[in-house]
Design a protein that fits this description.
InterPro entries: Uncharacterised_PrgI
Helix content: 40-55%
Number of strands: 12
CATH topology of one domain: Alpha-Beta Plaits
Protein name: PrgI family protein
Distance between the termini: 87 Å
Shape: elongated
Keywords: Membrane, Transmembrane, Transmembrane helix
Number of helices: 9
Radius of gyration: 30 Å
Largest sheet: 6 strands, antiparallel
Pfam families: PrgI (PF12666)
Length: 321
């Protein structure tokens, strides 16, 4: 049975805290109850061990301070994490070495290097990255798994009719329901280098065959240069990262899932494409440093062999030889 065009689409309410943990008792989760129980057990043990030695008012005051700390740890949140978990991450971050190196530090230093005293300058720790290599077809090696990246455009639902919006949402839901492996959707805003485009247009204006074309090209170059000087234009980048399942055989499983994602998203009015090796390298480099302007010519993959053509000998060189 089809729905008439005039009938409004069915809308369902979804809570924003759909991933929130369940409340067990007294409006507290199991994790919060465990923190409160640990604090109560600590105070009970200290009371039975010290109530004959330490005055009661002092123990009560210490219990109030301990209770405040326990309640703060149980109910406090920071950056979407409970306060105790956030403090554990903070301690781990403080203990993490600040100096990292891609090479191993187990080698022996040469004699001409002055070895610093122990404790003054720690040696750099090895830098362990999650990705090992990037293939020519764009697959990223993650140790025992592989990942592929799909770049896609966006669609404006506000410009669609209710029936079209319902169809697009249904197609999006079918793709989400078809996922059987971890999939990540990354939406980022990146700066656009309009100054280089302005210079390129200004240089190409003199090569136009007609005076009006030269004037239009120069005017557009001036407009882009003025826009780059007054504003910071941004562009939106949407990446879909697909991964192979744990223990899945086949070297191209992630690429196959990326191709399936392209076919599924093509029906939503967007333009998806699977990124190859250089495009994946550029995307990862831009994610690591989004404010660095792109290099002309793009970036080569880490394992790519860079070669150059051998210059041909001219007549002058032959005469000299």
């Amino acid at each position: 049975m089809t729905r008439p065009e005039s009938e409004p689409p069915t809308r369902a309410r979804m809570p924003a805290d759909v991933d929130a943990p369940d409340k067990v008792a007294y409006g507290l989760t199991f994790h919060q109850l465990a923190v409160v129980a640990a604090g109560a057990l600590l105070f009970y043990t200290a009371w039975h061990a010290l109530h004959d030695v330490v005055p009661t008012p002092l123990l009560v005051g210490a219990g109030v301070v301990l209770g405040g700390l326990v309640i703060g740890l149980a109910l406090g949140r920071r950056d979407g994490l409970s306060l105790d978990v956030w403090l554990l991450h903070a301690i781990g971050h403080i203990r993490t070495p600040r100096s990292l190196s891609t090479s191993t530090t187990g080698g022996v230093s040469p004699d001409w290097i002055e070895t610093p005293q122990a404790g003054r300058m720690p040696l750099p720790a090895p830098l362990r990255l999650p990705a090992d290599a990037i293939d020519d077809d764009g697959q990223v090696s993650l140790g025992d798994a592989r990942a592929a990246i799909v770049g896609t455009t966006t669609v404006n639902l506000a410009l669609r009719t209710p029936a079209e919006q319902t169809a697009l949402i249904d197609g999006w839901g079918r793709w989400l329901n078809s996922l059987s492996t971890p999939t990540q959707i990354v939406v980022s805003a990146q700066p656009v280098d309009l100054a280089s485009h302005s210079r390129a247009l200004a240089a190409a204006a003199h090569a136009q065959p007609h005076p009006r074309l030269r004037a239009a090209c120069a005017d557009h170059a001036e407009f882009l240069g003025d826009l780059a000087a007054r504003r910071d234009p941004l562009r939106r980048q949407v990446l879909v990262v697909t991964r192979s399942a744990a223990g899945e055989r086949g070297l191209h499983a992630a690429r196959r899932r990326a191709d399936d994602t392209v076919r599924a998203l093509s029906g939503l009015g967007v333009t998806p494409r699977v990124l190859d090796g250089p495009a994946v390298t550029a995307a990862l480099a831009c994610a690591a440093d989004p404010y660095r302007p792109p290099r002309p010519g793009g970036l080569a993959a880490p394992d790519a062999v860079i070669t150059a053509a051998t210059p041909s000998r001219t007549r002058t060189d032959r005469r000299r030889s």
